[in-house]
Design a protein that fits this description.
single chain; 13% strand; alpha+beta; 3-stranded antiparallel β-sheet
């Protein structure tokens, strides 16, 4: 496989692609759905809820946190995770801008 030539694309396109990769795993989507359902969640709760190994959950939480989609606070010997509202709404705008570009033609190719 060749090297991706990111310099051919705008910063916005490259950033969007990176975020899309984060959303590209079903475990991460499941984690986000749990976090959206409740205002906060402790990692142990995610293990129970999703039935995945602690190490797997931790790996996916790390990816979501690195993308700034979630944030976590240490509470005792646990970390409490929640949606990063500012980033979430920024992503919502970005995705909506892309989807809104479709002109909804009456005829399709």
């Amino acid at each position: 496989m060749g090297i991706t030539r990111t310099e051919l694309f705008t910063n916005k396109q490259n950033e969007f692609a990176q975020i899309a990769k984060v959303f590209g795993h079903p475990a991460r989507l499941a984690i986000l759905e749990v976090l959206l359902k409740s205002s906060t969640c402790i990692c142990g709760d995610l293990v129970e809820e999703l039935g995945l190994a602690q190490s797997t959950i931790s790996q996916h939480l790390k990816e979501l946190k690195n993308a700034d989609i979630i944030k976590g606070n240490i509470e005792g010997n646990s970390i409490c995770y929640c949606i990063n509202e500012e980033k979430w709404f920024e992503l919502k705008v970005t995705f909506n801008e892309l989807f809104d570009r479709y002109p909804n033609p009456k005829e399709c190719c």
